[in-house]
Amino acid sequence: MYLCKFEMSMREIRNIAVLGSTGSIGRQTLDIIAEYPDRFAPWLLVARSSADLLISQARQFRPHMVIIADAQYYEYVRDALEDTDIEVATGSAAIAQAVTAPEIDTVVTAMVGYSGLESTIAAIGAGKRIALANKETLVVAGELIDRLLKDSTSVLYPVDSEHGAFYQCLMGERMEDVEKLWLTASGGPFRTMPKEQLAHVTAADALKHPNWSMGAKITIDSATMMNKGFEMIEARWLFGVEPQDIEIVVHPQSIIHSMVAFKDGSVKAQLGLPDMHLPIRFALGLPDGRLASDCRKMTIEDMANLTLERPDFDKFPLLNTAYAAASTGGTAPCVMNAANEIAVAAFLQDKIKFTDIYRIINETMEHAPLVAHPGYEDYVQSNAAARDYASKLAALTV
Ligand code: MG
Known about the structure:
Number of domains: 2
Order of helices and strands: EHEHEHEHEHEHEHEHHHEEEHHHHH
Structural class: alpha/beta
CATH class of the largest domain: Mainly Alpha
Oligomer: single chain
Strand order of the largest sheet: 4-3-2-1-5-6-7
Bound molecules: magnesium ion
């Protein structure tokens, strides 16, 4: 665990790399960068395939470099920025190379899914401060990332709202005094729906998240509660706690962002409005201190009706799957993540039912061989094999 105290540093402008700048977290990160022009400057923007938005972000923010990961859009982006001095590149090797540039201070990892792993490893190797929004990096390869961080000056700051909450509750505390982490979950759009009806819900139903405005993949992960399973694994690696010491608690209003219980019986909670700008602002402020903002502030009414309940593991079986994968360790969480990416993509295209997502993940995990102590290449191979197997299961599903 890499908790820090606030340290007032020299207050130079920090150069930021935003990986996944056209996604939901990436766009909100650029909002925060624009809010504090005397503190942050975007140096590198990376997008997968949203070429037009990347071009308009480049024109607005004038970074040193942009990378469009999907090579088919490279010439289009390059030509559109021809009249500027912005460097344009393409491909995953270019991303892994660019994040190591000495000018970059902080790397915000906001790509979707497994694709975030390689560049996060490169940023750790270069000793960057990392604002981690790509939780799948820790789900897939938490063991490896943990090892790499021990040999690096790199620091991970969580952007995920729950993990930002844990971080804030743990500031000034000793980890040996912690009894339990309470990870809050909104419960998603199907919290009150009878289990039998879940087989009939559509992608459009699942995309209606009650509180948070997020990208499509994480919104489906939230509906299945896979997201909460991922966040349990993310918390385990970020804070060095055992999975059984992380308890999920459903809190439909998403005002309490998570809580820490201590061995003297005290509980600390962090509260805030459900707006991702807040945890991004906190993460980017580290380690210098909190960034003052004119954002809407919480009122008594916002906190007047807070409820907590236990999650329904029977209705949302991927919670069990995630705890099992965490305790098995090795490549098991990597396989779970790969199968989930395939199943969610198939569900978003209306090719499979909502409940097929669990079946595809569990069957892929049963089939996949386990590597107990994986290196980077084992993750690459496990990911590819699991995606392949899950794709076959999805194609067979009618
Ligand atoms: Mg979260």
